[in-house]
Amino acid sequence: MLTVILQQGINGIVVGSLYVLVAVGLTLIYGVLVQINFAHADIVTVGAFVAYFITHWLSGNYFAGIAAAFIVGAAFGWLMNAAIFVPLRNRSNELLPLIATIGVSIMLQNAMLILLGPIPYSFDTPYSNQVIRLGGTFFTVQNALIVLVSAITIAVLYAFMKFTFLGKALRAVSQDRETAGLMGINPNHVIMLTFVIASALAGMGGAMLGPVLVLTPFAGTSVIVKAFAIVIIGGFGNVEGTIVAGLIVGLIESYTTQFLDPGLIDIVVFALLLLTLAVRPTGLIAERREENV
Amino acid sequence: MAAVITIGLLPAIFTDSYWRSNLIICAVNVLLAIGLDFVLGYAGQLNLGQSAFYGIGAYASTLLITQLGVPFWIAFVIGVFLAGAAGVFLSMFAVRLRGHYLAIASLGFAVITYQVLLNWISVTQGPLGIYGIAPPPPLAIRGLPSIEFTNLASLFYLIAGFAFLTYLVLDQLLHSPVGETLTAIREDEVSATSLGVNCQKWKVFAFAVSSAVAGAGGCFYASFVGTLVPDAFFITESFSILAMVIVGGMGTLIGPVLGAILLTVLPELLRGIGDLRLIVYGVSVTLVVLFMPGGIVQAARLIAEDLRQRLRPDTTP
Predict the structure, then answer these.
(1) Confidence at residue A129, expressed as pLDDT on a 0 to 100 scale
(2) How many residue pairs from chains A and B have C-beta atoms closer than 8 A?
(3) CA-CA-CA-CA torsion for B40, B46, B48, B51, nearest 10 degrees?
(4) What is the ipTM for the molecules in this complex?
(5) Which ranges constitute the DSSP H helices of chain A?
(6) Mean pLDDT of all residues in A62-90
(7) Is residue B29 part of a domain?
(8) Is B309 an interface residue toward A (CB < 8 Å)?
(9) Cα–Cα distance between B279 and B293 in angstroms, integer?
(10) Residue of B nearest to A88 (CA)
(11) What is the number of structural domains in chain B?
(12) For chain A, what are the domain ranges?
């Protein structure tokens, strides 16, 4: 029994750390712009496919695939900002950018459907079949890699936000865009940078999700709805909250699969989301922060 | 009046069953789109849960008919009522949340509803679906020959007629002070409250109306296709309905009607080119939001204005 709980705990952390990678980008963008990029999920899918094709083309060099997905994701982020969010910045209706990105999302999904077809791709990396056994539990090297790469990436992101000038500028803009502008920070550059970073992480998240997920053009949709749930449970714009909530949702998912029914995953996660919104719309984890302000 | 004549003539123009089926789908989509526009375009609440209300209406009425033997029109009323009640439930969140939070909460609601339809196999039969749903029973009025709804033309008249009536009712409602109240909430909730508008009450009302209309669309949809599977009510359906409202022009009632018709017919015309059907939705929404946020209605107004300028020769020196 204990090993089952441990085993599912490991699975939950693997999935959860992937969700963190995707959700953290949504949180960053919301922080600086108070907007949601609905096509974020499709950047995840694009990243997964880029990694798939690069890995196969370079006969199994998975790290090159991850790097390529990172770069393609960054390019998509730049494009999304330049084509959608910049032109809509000065419109009075705050919902228009969200609706436009829903349009982009439908467009990207169906473009991929035409190019790649609806049949799931099986993305096996050289690490998918190497199994590590540890005290009754086991996990693949791929899984270890996912957790490791996610943890390093988040740590780097955290250090970037805390210690570099650009990171401080990013936090300044998300706290108060106008005052940051007065301090000589160009908010437009910071917003652009945020989109590039967030989308690069999404692309990379896709590269690592690909091997553990059913890889179709619609793979991103199931991830994004959970990423939204995570971002709200953790508190929009709150990076630490997003990390904790991401791991919690990953664990909920694996324990629901084990002890209840896999079909109930979304129901449990979204019931938690609706509960959070009903009880504390600023997020369960942002609670303490709210009081400090 | 022109609308009545158009509805009357359409089945005569399109005689083959393929296009008549499309006409019926158009009528259902018109219902869904004007329902969403009521809450989005007028009350300014981005509700991405329309697919859930559509599904609740469809499944509730169908299950009542097939499992409990309830007569069609009673099942219809209950289905519409349940969809409206679900809308009231979701509006409890709308009362507290604004903008993006509501969008995600409603999306979450749509995901939960879809998953319930998919996993509650003992009731909904899950992914296997429900088959052999009967069309509405014949409408017999004393002294007149009874109307059978087994043929597509009369089913179209029934659904389009209902959509037209709904349009008239909503139009009357929006031209009454209710419309102004909802618009005030959309433009500035704080100001509206300061003028004595009970925003919470009106948001609940807007959600109830919007979801009840979607529920009616669901009942008709079920009785038309005769088959229910959960995938028809996946969240992408919400996005399609949103696309119809946006492309037609949100905040006008005629816009979503035009948007629904255009986005139902256009993909059918493009069917020959291949799998471009849904991409049309994505491209049109993105372009409309970027370049013509008032949709078809705004475009038509601009063209009309332009024509008027041209037809007045004395204005040019």
Answers:
(1) 74
(2) 132
(3) -10
(4) 0.83
(5) 2-33, 40-57, 62-80, 86-88, 96-116, 141-163, 165-175, 177-182, 187-209, 219-234, 239-259, 265-279, 287-292
(6) 87
(7) yes
(8) no
(9) 19
(10) B290
(11) 1
(12) 2-217
Confidence of residue A292 (pLDDT cuts 50, 70, 90): very low
Find the CB nearest A103 among B92, B235, B286. Answer: B286
Q: For A103-162, how does the pLDDT look when each residue is reduced to its tens digit (9 = 90+)?
A: 899 888 888 888 887 788 877 777 777 777 777 777 778 888 888 888 888 888 888 888
Q: Is the pLDDT of residue A291 over 50?
A: no
Q: Please name the amino acid found at residue B138.
A: P
Reduced to 3 states, what is the DSSP secondary structure of residue A24? helix
Backbone angles phi, psi at A137, to 5 degrees: -95, 160
Residue B118, domain member (yes or no): yes
Residue B290 has its nearest CB partner, among A100, A113, A270, at A100
Residue B297 falls within a domain, yes or no? no
Residue B128 lies in a domain: yes
**pLDDT single digits (tens) A149-204:** 888 888 888 888 888 877 778 777 777 777 777 777 777 888 888 889 999 999 99
A contacts of B287 (beta carbons < 8 Å): 103
Residue B77's domain comprises 2-234
Query: Which residues in chain B come in under a pLDDT of 50?
Result: none
Residue B27 near chain A (CB below 8 Å): no
Q: Which of residues 93-112 of A touch B (CB under 8 A)?
A: 93-100, 102-111
Selecting from B116, B289, B293 the residue whose C-beta is nearest the C-beta of A103 gives B289
Judge: B118–A274 Cβ closer than 8 Å, yes or no: no
